Every structure is written in C-alpha cells, then in structure tokens.
Acetyltransferase protein (Haloplasma contractile SSD-17B), 295 residues
Amino acid sequence: MNNQYQLVCDYKHNDELRSSFNELSEKTFGLNFEKWYQDGYWNDSYICYSYRNEDNKIVSNISIHPMDIMMNGEHKKAIQIGTVMTDENHRKQGLARKLMEHIISTYKEDYDLFYLSANETVLDFYPRFGFKLKEETKFILPVSTSIMQVRKGVRQLELSNDADLAVLIDLTENRYPASNTLDTFNDHHLVRFYCTNVFTDSIYYIEKENSIVVFNIEGNTLHLLGVISDREVDLNKLVTYLVSNKIKQIEFHFTPDIDSKQLTLNKTSQNDRFILNLANIELPQDYVFPSLSQG
C-alpha cells in the first residue's frame, strides 16, 4: 500500500478530520454526522477507523459500534460495522480490506460476533473475511377486532421542546430490551441519531406506559420502527394505542416478542445481514435486527 496513507482512529474531537469524514460521508451516503456530534450524542460507541492522505483528508473509512445484544435471553457482545466508504479517487488500492483486517484483528478476542448490512454492489467483499449472509424475517401482525381496542393517550413529541427532548434522553439512556429473542441495548447514541436526524416527525409518547413508539403509516400498514421504554413492554397492549379503523396490519422493524401464531412471517432479502459468528452462537430461527440501532 502506498505510504501516502496513514491509519487514524477515534478522531471525533479533531475538527479537521471530523469535517473531512463528514464530507466523504455526505458524498457517499448523503449523511452528515456534525449535528449528532454537536448535540453530544457521538460518544465512544461510534469509532471511526480511517486512512488519511498527505493532505490530511479522510479517503477511506470503516466505523464500528461495540454493541450489547440480547439474543435468546442471553447477553452477547457484538461489533456492528457501518459507514464503509472509500473516496472514488482512492479505490482499488486495498484500503477497505486493510481497515477490515485491522478491525477484526483488534476486536475478535473480546466479541462474540461481527455484523453489518450491505448493499448489492459489495456482496462479494465481506465473505473474504468469513462473513456469511443471513436471511432475516419480516414480522407482520394482522389487525383484528381483538386488538381494535383503541386506547387514548398518545402524543407526538416535539424535540425542539426541552421537556419532550428530556423524555427521549431519559428513556434512551435507560432503554430496556424490547425483545428477549433479539434486541440491542446500551445503544442510546444510535437511537438518538435516528430520532433526532431521521424520524423526527414519527416519535410518539404513551405516558401511561412511559414508552416512546416510533412509527409511520403507509396506506393501511403501520410501520412500527421501534419501542423505547425503561421497562418490559407488552406489545399486544402497546399496539392498541396505535391502531385505527384504517390500519389493517402492523409491520415490526425489530424482533417482536409476540406469539408467532399471531404473526405472518416472511423471509426477506430486504434487510439481510452479513454475520461473522466467532463464538458459533445459535441464532434465532426468525429475527430482524432493530432498525433504530442500524449503524
């Protein structure tokens, strides 16, 4: 590899490098992390591993999220990989490969698995490092008369309001896993990123349950993106706050702890994950990684 590149990591407080990282991310994904940083949510659970060139510009990056995962009722430690990108003028030089090798070597002794989502253009890259493509499940709950007990007490949170923002901060800080089958926790940095940057108009608070629900509606389908609560949640009860006569089904964008007999389960390639299962963990038969913790 050309000596013009230098490995740098965890430089979030370096204004020049962070700005260059944001430029590359904006150009590659249309994402900018500056507001997230300025809001104080970019913490030590999001670490950039990058190569910079002689002009001190970030030209290649792989970021990691050390994650706590509840899987089949057991606590597992994982590394989620994201923001994989190389500037188009610096490709075909093995930069991403060297970064991935360095990351796996650094963390493989202390973590049970690595995982990531990838687009179709790079499906041949990750198997080189031992990753295997795993099919996920789409969970659909048909809305029947048995859950059509519409409850009142849901209000939209306005994050520009200090009191509403405080509710979000408190519940994300103390979030209880929404599923024993598969969920992430201690990941408030990611959940806050999505709530304050992506789904700002989709955040609702159920005061009686002290729970936040993130959802949107498309046609007759309610997409339940996530539940944020400081306690164990009864999803069968929670959805009764959300349904109306117009809603025919609820699609969960996380793994719900609901009797599978109530659900329609479909295998889907839409959200497939690459998984490097170092500890040979038995994965759940049906699962989907939560959308609010996707790196």
Summary: The chain is about 20% helix and 35% strand. The mean pLDDT is 91.
